[in-house]
Amino acid sequence: GKENVDSRHSRGRGGDTTRFHTVNVAQPVRFSRKCPTGWYHYEGTASCYRVYLNGENYWDAVQTCQRVNGSLATFTADQELRFILAQEWDLEEKTFVRRDQYRFWVGYQYVITNRNHSLEGHWEVAYKGSSEVFLPPDPIFGTAMSENENVLCAQLQCFHFPTLRRHGLHSWYAENCYEKSSFLCKRSQTCVDIKDNIVDEGYYFTPKGNDPCLSCTCHNGEPEMCVAALCERPQGCQQYRKDPKECCKFTCLDP
Q1: What GO cellular-component annotations does this UniProt entry give (predicted)?
Q2: Does the pLDDT at position 130 exceed 90?
Q3: Domain map of the chain by residue range?
Q4: Closest CA relative to residue 26, chosen from 191, 205, 229, 207
Q5: CATH architecture classification, 40-188
């Protein structure tokens, strides 16, 4: 690799002096951005998560998650749930009844099978095509419901206090699906370019990082097969500044 210097001299054939300009040499890059702005990334499931504060009923929340290529969150392992519980989500206190805790819709439904002496039933994943998930324990039943309702929807209750979050304390509620609540969406990790645009599978893009002259292919949410362009020094300019987001674009700083 060439040294990252403004210029370098070497002897060419016949004693000629060859001048190299290596203004922008590709450096090893650690790609850490795999989710759109506002989403939290979890490496264990290669997924992104976001809490939406606009109170919606369960069915509207499902549609909102689908519009961002996701679904209401389900969990594949206890470690994934612990990751969710540990996050300090960007929440507004006014959206919750109590200041120390909050609830949001997640991707399970409680199907009632017996109403004799107490409500009996079981949890199911709320949408088809979900990967293998664990099911919640017995729920706390929320607001009063009519006898005609046989399906309730899942709310995950978390806590604001850091100590409680770190210990993973939480509760599961089976709630009337037409109640309005915040909700948690989950989607697969994705490629995000240097300008924070989401990149579709198989397309070329410049990943977030310090080199706007990298071009990579998006594969399974990861940049692969990256190549770099080298830029010549701008002509007739002694002092200049490189554009951090545009390849081979400079601003001349000469008087």
Answers
A1: membrane
A2: no
A3: 40-188, 191-252
A4: 229
A5: Roll (3.10)
